[in-house]
Amino acid sequence: MDTGHDPHTYTSGRWLHRDKLERDSRYISFDFDALCRRAIELCPGAVSIATCDKKEGGFNRVFIFTTNNAKRVVAKLPFTPAGPPRLTTNSEVATMKYCEFKPIDATVE
User: Fold this and answer.
1) φ and ψ of 94, to 5 deg
2) At CA 99, angle to CA 94 and CA 105, rounded to 5?
3) What would the pLDDT profile of 6-36 be if each residue is shown by its tens digit?
Protein backbone atom coordinates (compact mmCIF):
# COMPACT_ATOMS: atom_id res chain seq x y z
CA MET A 1 0.00 0.00 0.00
CA ASP A 2 1.39 3.40 -0.96
CA THR A 3 0.54 5.75 1.91
CA GLY A 4 2.68 8.66 0.80
CA HIS A 5 4.82 8.40 3.93
CA ASP A 6 7.69 6.25 5.12
CA PRO A 7 6.22 3.87 7.71
CA HIS A 8 9.65 2.94 9.09
CA THR A 9 11.37 6.29 9.71
CA TYR A 10 10.66 8.88 12.41
CA THR A 11 9.45 12.03 10.65
CA SER A 12 7.72 14.10 13.32
CA GLY A 13 10.56 16.26 14.53
CA ARG A 14 14.21 16.82 15.28
CA TRP A 15 16.38 17.02 18.39
CA LEU A 16 18.82 19.78 19.27
CA HIS A 17 21.18 17.27 20.84
CA ARG A 18 22.07 13.88 19.28
CA ASP A 19 19.50 14.27 16.50
CA LYS A 20 20.75 11.38 14.35
CA LEU A 21 20.98 9.04 17.35
CA GLU A 22 17.46 9.90 18.49
CA ARG A 23 15.95 9.50 15.01
CA ASP A 24 17.88 6.26 14.38
CA SER A 25 16.63 4.83 17.69
CA ARG A 26 13.06 5.36 16.45
CA TYR A 27 13.55 3.51 13.16
CA ILE A 28 11.33 0.40 13.11
CA SER A 29 11.99 -2.41 10.65
CA PHE A 30 8.80 -4.36 9.93
CA ASP A 31 6.65 -5.57 7.04
CA PHE A 32 4.19 -2.73 6.51
CA ASP A 33 2.27 -4.63 3.81
CA ALA A 34 1.76 -7.51 6.26
CA LEU A 35 0.45 -5.03 8.84
CA CYS A 36 -2.02 -3.69 6.25
CA ARG A 37 -3.16 -7.23 5.40
CA ARG A 38 -3.68 -7.99 9.08
CA ALA A 39 -5.76 -4.83 9.54
CA ILE A 40 -7.99 -5.96 6.68
CA GLU A 41 -8.29 -9.48 8.17
CA LEU A 42 -9.51 -7.98 11.44
CA CYS A 43 -12.43 -6.23 9.74
CA PRO A 44 -15.06 -8.64 8.38
CA GLY A 45 -16.18 -7.58 4.91
CA ALA A 46 -13.17 -5.34 4.26
CA VAL A 47 -11.11 -5.92 1.14
CA SER A 48 -8.74 -2.94 1.19
CA ILE A 49 -7.33 -0.07 3.23
CA ALA A 50 -9.00 3.22 2.25
CA THR A 51 -6.75 5.48 4.35
CA CYS A 52 -3.81 5.18 6.69
CA ASP A 53 -2.84 7.94 9.09
CA LYS A 54 0.61 7.85 10.73
CA LYS A 55 1.01 9.48 14.16
CA GLU A 56 4.23 9.65 16.16
CA GLY A 57 5.15 10.59 19.68
CA GLY A 58 8.33 10.25 21.64
CA PHE A 59 7.81 6.57 22.43
CA ASN A 60 5.37 5.10 19.87
CA ARG A 61 4.36 5.15 16.23
CA VAL A 62 0.66 4.64 15.58
CA PHE A 63 -1.08 3.78 12.34
CA ILE A 64 -4.82 4.40 12.09
CA PHE A 65 -6.19 2.32 9.23
CA THR A 66 -9.64 2.89 7.77
CA THR A 67 -10.88 0.06 5.59
CA ASN A 68 -13.11 0.30 2.52
CA ASN A 69 -16.11 -0.60 4.70
CA ALA A 70 -15.38 2.27 7.15
CA LYS A 71 -14.01 0.09 9.96
CA ARG A 72 -10.98 1.42 11.82
CA VAL A 73 -7.98 -0.43 13.20
CA VAL A 74 -5.25 1.14 15.31
CA ALA A 75 -1.76 -0.40 15.35
CA LYS A 76 0.77 0.84 17.91
CA LEU A 77 4.48 0.12 17.51
CA PRO A 78 6.70 1.18 20.42
CA PHE A 79 10.14 2.68 19.79
CA THR A 80 13.24 1.13 21.36
CA PRO A 81 13.68 3.99 23.93
CA ALA A 82 10.25 3.11 25.38
CA GLY A 83 11.63 -0.17 26.74
CA PRO A 84 10.86 -3.79 25.90
CA PRO A 85 7.63 -3.87 23.82
CA ARG A 86 6.09 -6.63 25.93
CA LEU A 87 6.53 -4.64 29.14
CA THR A 88 5.33 -1.31 27.74
CA THR A 89 2.21 -2.89 26.24
CA ASN A 90 1.47 -4.87 29.43
CA SER A 91 1.76 -1.64 31.42
CA GLU A 92 -0.69 0.16 29.12
CA VAL A 93 -3.17 -2.73 29.25
CA ALA A 94 -2.96 -2.78 33.06
CA THR A 95 -3.59 0.97 33.18
CA MET A 96 -6.64 0.66 30.89
CA LYS A 97 -8.05 -2.18 33.00
CA TYR A 98 -7.50 -0.14 36.16
CA CYS A 99 -9.32 2.84 34.61
CA GLU A 100 -12.30 0.63 33.74
CA PHE A 101 -12.85 0.06 37.46
CA LYS A 102 -11.82 3.48 38.76
CA PRO A 103 -13.66 6.42 37.20
CA ILE A 104 -11.37 9.37 36.67
CA ASP A 105 -12.72 12.88 37.10
CA ALA A 106 -11.15 14.86 34.27
CA THR A 107 -12.90 18.13 35.13
CA VAL A 108 -10.71 21.16 34.57
CA GLU A 109 -11.57 24.31 36.46
Assistant:
1) -60, -40
2) 150
3) 899 888 888 899 999 988 888 989 999 999 9
